[in-house]
From TrEMBL:
Originating species: Leptotrichia rugosa
HAMAP family: RNase_III (MF_00104)
Transmembrane segments: none
Residues annotated as domain DRBM: 162-231
UniProt keyword Transmembrane helix, yes or no: no
Record's protein name: Ribonuclease 3
Function: Digests double-stranded RNA. Involved in the processing of primary rRNA transcript to yield the immediate precursors to the large and small rRNAs (23S and 16S). Processes some mRNAs, and tRNAs when they are encoded in the rRNA operon. Processes pre-crRNA and tracrRNA of type II CRISPR loci if present in the organism.
Catalytic activity: Endonucleolytic cleavage to 5'-phosphomonoester
CDD domains the record matches: DSRM_RNAse_III_family (cd10845), RIBOc (cd00593)
EC number: 3.1.26.3
Subunit structure: Homodimer.
BP GO terms, sorted: mRNA processing; regulation of gene expression; rRNA processing; tRNA processing
């Protein structure tokens, strides 16, 4: 099945790109760029990186203003639940974003249009693209249109209360530090890539995890770190 018309997507999100190249990049998965010669120079990973930072600021600013009575720790926990693969992939599923993505044939055959890691990354890339094409306030307006309903219904989204959230609370409370996630490496073909990540603080690695996305690998690393901390208490 071919990807849907991007003009339809712009109508869905309520934003028309001035430079359509940003949208094209946001919708181009690395599997497609590796498969199609003319697109080898770009995919959506840099826009995903940018979009993650923009969404972090949008979310932080919003919950800071909305939840005046919450402590810093409570806001940090809430933000980590919102800035997450479950929330972003849920938004992407609602708008059928996967149907607009440029994916390799192998990725399409393996269910890539519905894979949560791809959908979550694509939403971040889309917000990054809007930011580049316009400005922060426009990106904020578009992002909040999709985020607000999710923020009000986090308990209904599977996976938002995860090991990363719990680990962050434990480490902040005991060590006054933030856990740091470091990508160790990747292996496998683009349509079936495996990521390996470690989590550390105070220059000590406490957990290592693998997964089909960076976020999944980080969650598994956090789970291992929590198990290690549990054994240290005994």
């Amino acid at each position: 099945m071919m990807q849907k018309d991007s003009e339809e997507l712009m109508r869905k999100i309520g934003y028309e790109f001035k430079n359509k190249k940003y949208l094209e990049k946001a919708l181009t998965h690395r599997s497609y760029s590796n498969e199609i010669e003319k697109t080898k120079r770009y995919n959506n990973e840099k826009l995903e990186f940018l979009g993650d930072a923009v969404l972090n600021l949008i979310t932080t600013e919003y919950i800071y203003e909305r939840y005046e009575g919450k402590t810093e720790g409570e806001l940090a926990k809430l933000k980590s639940q919102i800035i997450s693969e479950p929330v972003f992939s849920s938004i992407s599923s609602d708008m059928e974003l996967g149907e607009y993505l440029y994916l390799s044939n192998g990725e399409i055959m393996s269910g890539g249009r519905h894979r949560k890691s791809i959908l979550g990354d694509a939403f971040e890339a889309l917000i990054g693209a809007i930011f580049k094409d316009s400005d922060y306030y426009t990106a904020k307006e578009v992002a909040l249109k999709f985020l607000l309903n999710k923020i009000d219904n986090l308990e209904e989204i599977e996976g938002t209360g995860d090991h990363k959230t719990i680990l962050q609370e434990v480490v902040q409370g005991k060590y006054k530090k933030m856990p740091e996630y470091v990508l160790i490496g990747t292996k496998g073909p683009d349509h079936d890539k495996i990521f390996e990540t470690c989590v550390k603080w105070n220059d000590e690695v406490f957990g290592v995890g693998v997964g089909k996305s960076k976020k999944e690998a980080e969650k598994n690393a956090a789970k291992q770190a929590l198990e290690k901390l549990s054994k240290l208490k005994k």
